[in-house]
Amino acid sequence: MSKSPNIFLPALGVTGVVLGLAYGLNTRTYRAAEADLALKQAAAAEAMVAEKAAASEALQAQIEELEARPMTVAVKSDPVPERDGTFGLGREAHAEEIAAWDVDVLPDGRGLPVGSGNAFDGEEVFAEQCASCHGDFAEGVDNWPVLAGGFDTLADEDPVKTVGSYWPHLSTAYDYIYRSMPFGAAGTLTPDETYAIVAYILYSNDLIDDDFELSNENLGDFEMHNKDGFVIDDRPELEYAEWRAEPCMSNCKEEVEISMRSVFLVETPPEGGSESVMNHATLEGLPSFTAAGASHINEALAATPVAATQPAATAEPAAEDDGAALIKAGGKVFKKCQSCHAIGAGAKNKSGPQLNAVFGRTIGGVEGFKYSNVFKEAASEGRVWDAESMAAFLAKPKDYMKGTKMSFSGLKKAADVEALIAYLEAEGS
Amino acid sequence: MDENMKTSRRAFLRGSAAVAAGSVAGAASASGPDPLITELQDWASYTGAGVDETPYGMPIEFESHVVRRNVEWLTASPISSINFTPIHALDGTITPQGCAFERHHSGAIELRKEDYRLMINGLVDRPLVFTYEDLERFPRENHVYFCECAANTGMEWAGAQLNGAQFTHGMIHNMEYTGIPLRTLLQEAGADISSDKWVYVEGADASSNGRSIPMEKALDDCLVAFKANGEALRMEHGYPVRLVVPGWEGNMWVKWLRRIEIVDRAVESREETSKYTDVYEDGVARKWTWVMDAKSVITSPSPQMPIKHGKGPLVISGLAWSGHGQITRVDVSKDGGITWETARLGKQGDTKALTRFYLDMDWDGAPMLLQSRAMDDTGYVQPTKDQLREKRGENAVYHNNCIQTWYVNEQGIAENVEVS
Fold first, then answer.
1. Exposure on the CB side of residue A411, measured as CA atoms within 13 A
2. Residue A250 resides in a domain
């Protein structure tokens, strides 16, 4: 881009003329008022010139900065206009609304509701509300998070990061459990239940005795094992300082060898998802590389290029009638159940039993599932699930099966019960 | 200017060579008249689908394999899980919403615009509640940004694990967002915007996924977005409103955004202490590791995109991005990092957005170790796996932006490998 320092020359020219005129008038002490006016105009013109010169300098600086930048300056959205004052949109939040939503807890304990609980009480709440995923002793079931133990493993190859071994603040446990747990029924715990659960987790980590009363008074002061185990992001000093440098382009290494092949091959079936399959290929026979290229070419492989694979045809969508609509509605209701129950091809027991062919099945009759006593009794009496018993159970689980482990409180709408039963019947057959 | 001219001259020369080689290959494979041309085809004779047959269109069935996919064993339940964008099969830079990766902590929720409320409270003059309609009345902007999960490529810390660019690098998408600058809403509520304050954000879903954002970032480029790629956000991307935190880890892009609170310190929520922190070899964890450093990957050829055409013209294509700004250069190596050549950028990189790169070559059928290396406008160069491991060890989960290697054999089959 060419620089153009001449764009303000006309302005300078005008000032020159005005100044000359003023000088002439003044020396003759003639028509002083007009001379005065001319001088003022000249001064104003001069100020304008100074201003424009400053603007010119700024523009020049901008041009230089732009020229110095790499040629990749992207065009961005114009910024939204500045505004003095507000738009007057929205409305004032009510205190009750803030109280309902603003439940976060800060590390120093601010935000904790009044309440308390101990591990002794917590054990019971934990068994009912948490153990189906986290285990009776907070040891974690399947892939669900382990909450206890793992001390002194953080520098190991596979660190065990639990509330006890890793979490720097206890406030985090209260904050998270109270708002977002249990999984599938978030926001249903009382403050006292939450304090008791947190106390039980501490107890499971051997951090308190079972009679220690955890409350809004002492939770913020509780010192966690790993409280000093965190530092703030130090990539700028450790990495950026070193890695902001012109990289090597040629002869960067002498020789390169393949040191590891993919552990899993991943199959991608047409119906979606993926299947991971162990890769049994070895490093044997693989070429190494130098600046001259690959060490050798496998002619047998070269002779058989990979064939084009055809994408599979898609299945015909099923026609939808009234029955299908009910089943579809039931599928939506089932979202309330899916965190604990699986249904359909290959469904396995999760924290609740799998629900395939549930109608006609003995109540409490899924092999390998650990039922509560009330279900074991039903099984020994030979009771069987049918639409009627299922409807009663789904409406009020804890009334129909006193002592059930299922934490779900029941479906309020009869239409939901009907739809869910249709769905269970269709999906599980 | 000069740079561009050089690039187009190089491209022209490469193009000429490609045409010459291509005509040879084409002549060799055409053994007789092609019935697709010489015989009347159904589609050239019968009529096709009428308008409105699919009021909202899906990709044609022949593309039905181009879908997001999960790896079931990675997580305990698909409700709190992640899947992967089919980056290997896409080109350009914009990710269609329907195949953009999903990450939910308590499942994707159905929240109507009519039921949507956004609260701003905490250290503000006026705690406010907005409806969706209120948000539509604030001035809005359009920006393209990438959103990358901090765990993208996380499995690969322990070595080459999953065979496919979709699975190693697919926790990323790139969309054009329409939204309100977060600073506008903070001003509306009269928020205390002094630099030591934090903006805590949470979603309306059961997980709420609370995160703390330092005030400087909140005032800089964060958006409260309600459209992506021109249409309403999809349910799985936070319909009706999500937060956009350009260049920073995806977990902070809170979906179904329901509350913004000004606080005087970081909340240190579950998602910013027990998760999304990085344990180094010495057992000390890094927190507040928000920025996604410069990174790139070759999307084709790759394990799901073998070379099927044999020797001759080959387009090597890939994606590069940086949470610090623009991608200025991408180098590609065919020999595992001994020799590098500078790739061609599909177009100049947007800041904190995906940039497409190409290297057009003639493949001689010899094995290759393909790598790409991104550079951003801070001068940062994407590191090798060894460089990263030297600094951090192998116990980290997040922020793996290492150079990826695909071994392409004589058949054109590509595999995820590690090299010396």
1. 22
2. no
Token pair 């059930």 in the structure block, residue: A404
Tokens 């329901």 correspond to B258
* Residues of chain A contacting B340 with CB distance shorter than 8 Å: 247-250, 252
| DSSP conformation class of A73 | P
Q: How far is B16 from chain A (nearest CA, A)?
A: 24
Mean pLDDT computed over A74-87: 77
* Under 8 Å between Cβ of B391 and B293: no
Phi first, then psi: give them for residue B66, nearest 5 degrees.
-85, 80
Same domain, A113 and A183: yes
What are the backbone angles phi and psi of residue B176, rounded to the nearest 5°?
-95, 115
pTM attached to this predicted model: 0.80
Q: SS3 of A64, please?
A: helix
Q: Which of residues 103-122 of A touch B (CB under 8 A)?
A: 104-107
Give the CB-side neighbour count of residue A138, counting CA atoms within 13 A: 26
**Res B71 pLDDT > 60:** yes
Q: What is the domain extent for residue B411? A: 295-417
Instruction: Choose one of B286, B306, B341: the last residue of a domain.
Output: B286
Q: What spatial distance separates the first Cα and last Cα of chain B, rounded to whole Å? A: 39
C-alpha angle B228/B169/B241, rounded to 5°?
20
Average pLDDT rounded to a whole number, residues B166-184 = 98
Residue A314 has pLDDT above 50, yes or no: no
Q: What is the interface pTM, i.e. ipTM, of the complex?
A: 0.89
Residue B34 has pLDDT above 80, yes or no: yes
Counting beta carbons within 10 angstroms of the beta carbon of residue A374, is it exposed (0 to 12), middle (13 to 18) or buried (19 or more)?
middle
Q: CB-based burial of residue B74 (10 Å sphere; 0-12 exposed, 13-18 middle, 19+ buried)?
A: middle
Contact across the interface for A87 and B188, Cβ inside 8 Å: yes
**What is the amino acid identity at position B409?**
N
